[in-house]
Amino acid sequence: MKKTLKNILKFAMIPALVYTLGSCEKQKTLKINNSTYDIHAQEIIQTKSSFLEDDTIKIGVVSDIEGAIQNAQVSAKKLQKEKVDVLIISGDCYENESIRRNPLYPNSTNNLEEMIAGIKPYAEIGALVLIIPGNHEKKDIYKKAINKLKEDYPNVFDIKNKSVDLKDFNIVGMGGYHDSRFMDSEGFLLEKGDYEKALNSLQKFQNQNEPTIFVTHSPPKSNSKIDYVHGAGNVGDSEIEKIMNNKSLDKIVNVHGHIHEGGRNVAKYKSGVALNVASITSYMNQKGVNTPLLIIKDNDIQYKEL
């Protein structure tokens, strides 16, 4: 399966990991493969890129792992074979039994271990791994899991409310969910300031004239399949829809999950497109393990399902 977004967005192994302290206590330098990054509290800046050594940038995007550890291993092997440069996980990193008990994974109880086990296959690829929370994550478990993963995999980063300035493209993360009825009571409820910060970050990158990947868990509100639920209609986030239709933005690719049955569908907005990448589980997902790949080459972005 391969879709080209050419007329909408025109533009495209375990590594040695080395840290050195920068001039600021909160800044450090990270080297992954032959790329170098300055790590700040709210931003990751790529100072040297090896992405275009093969003339192609490959970005793996997965979502809604939700306890499907074996599926994560299968998905990660596909992405490793593609030699992805960046890997994005757009939320629901474990199955939270306080929200629902997925009939496919009835033994889901240790959420901390489950989140670590679900992300580990992707971390082992060695690429830059960028993660946001969805509606399943509790704040303490999410943060503990990220910190635990970073002990063995310093290429793993939480990008909730953070931006990533890369050579030839950029990434803005906005983790969490907008409706408290369908999330953990101790989770990441989106507030007005989260949307404002995301919009400001997206606008900041506009002068670079490069594509920006906007990572959310919920889809934007639409009249398409990306956020359609039988019996409920289109349930996407209207505030994300406003961002995607903001006239000041261009070349935006929103990648999201959450609505499993809407996976592999694309919707158009004034600023670009939204791509539902959910889910690697089989729950409410007849198409099976979703493993999308974004390919940037020759000033064009292509979407390919592995």
Write up what this structure looks like:
The protein has 306 residues and is of the alpha/beta class. It has a single domain (2-12, 54-305), classed as Metallo-dependent phosphatases (Purple Acid Phosphatase, chain A, domain 2, 4-Layer Sandwich), CATH 3.60.21. Helices cover 20% and strands 28% of the residues. The chain is built from five helices and 19 strands. It has helices at 69-82, 111-123, 139-152, 192-204, 238-244; strands at 2-4, 18-21, 28-32, 35-39, 43-48, 57-62, 86-90, 128-132, 156-158, 163-166, 169-174, 212-216, 228-229, 233-234, 252-256, 266-269, 272-276, 292-297, 300-305. The strands form three sheets. Strands 2-3-4-5-10-11-12-15-17-16 form a ten-stranded mixed β-sheet, covered by helices on one side. Strands 1-19-18-6-7-8-9 form a seven-stranded mixed β-sheet. The chain is globular and about 45 Å long. The N and C termini lie close together (8 Å).
How many strand segments? 19
CATH topology: Purple Acid Phosphatase, chain A, domain 2
- Domain module count: 1
Report how far the terminal alpha carbons are from each other.
8 Å
Structural class: alpha/beta
Q: Oligomer, anyone? A: single chain
Helix-strand pattern, N to C?
Answer: EEEEEEHEHEHEEEHEEEHEEEEE
Shape: globular
Segments where pLDDT lies below 50 for 5+ residues? 7-25
How would you sum up the major sheet? 10 strands, mixed
**Per DSSP, what share of the residues sits in E-state strands of 2 or more residues?**
25-35%
CATH architectural grouping: 4-Layer Sandwich
How helical, in percent, are the residues? 10-25%
Rg calc? 18 Å
